[in-house]
Amino acid sequence: MPIHRFFYNRVKGEMEQALIAQNWPRLTIARPSMLLGDREKQRANEMFLAPLFRLLPGNWKSIEARDVARAMLAEALAPGHEGVSILTSSELRERAK
Fold first, then answer.
1. Is 4 part of a structural domain of the chain?
2. Span 10-25, pLDDT tens digits
3. Where does this protein have coiled-coil stretches (predicted)?
């Protein structure tokens, strides 16, 4: 039986739901698009798709891993936030500025 095409998305969704169910006082979930940046081993499909994902609009546009890190740090240090926040790729890009 072939591996489910959307295995990553399904597992990530299950993980998010499990975290939300734990009722943390504050929880931020990042949902970046294709991550760009240095890595030890390049993946063939990412090398092929990366130029295309740079041209896509909004939440489909690729994002640098360092920008995700900047955005998550900014979110963690921001006062007055309680409950669950889900940040899309566009929102991560905006917070990374």
1. no
2. 899 999 999 999 999 9
3. none
